[in-house]
Specification:
Number of strands: 8
Distance between the termini: 45 Å
Number of domains: 1
Largest sheet: 4 strands, antiparallel
Structural class: alpha+beta
Number of helices: 3
Helix content: 10-25%
Strand content: 15-25%
Order of helices and strands: EEEEEEEHEHH
Shape: globular
Amino acid sequence: MTKEFTDTKETIYDFYDLIEVECPDCGSHAIVRNVSDKSGMFSPRRFSCKKCGKQKEWNEQGLGSITDEDPYFGYKLWFLASSCGHTLYALNEKHLDFLRSYVEATQRKRPRKENESEIRNGTLASRFPAWMKSAKNREEVLRSIEKLKHKKGCANQSAHTTPASAPR
């Protein structure tokens, strides 16, 4: 069955409003989110962990790069997996869904702007590494993405478990 992906020109910055991370204090699922009315990568952020209550504010102007850490506080990303000998990461569940839709597609389209002979190399889909784009790696990358989706489900489940309701 042919699955199609059309590049709608998202960039990595389109996924910056909510970044899911591991709390550096307790190791639980936590978030870094935009706390202003305006969107953009330099708008103020707040780190918060529901489990231990740690919070931290960010109002800087410079950002780090994304490797396996968020660019604001440098905390380890929640969605990290090894895949095909490389690190697969996603900033949040929406980014993870974007990755899945790209990887599972057997046909990938990159529309051109009017009056432009070539599409620019600035979209997220155009920047994916060759190992992620390769059809021979599709199944392994999709398995890694599914493991990360399951990790999100486990984080949600444990966030709603109270000591009184925890299984014994």
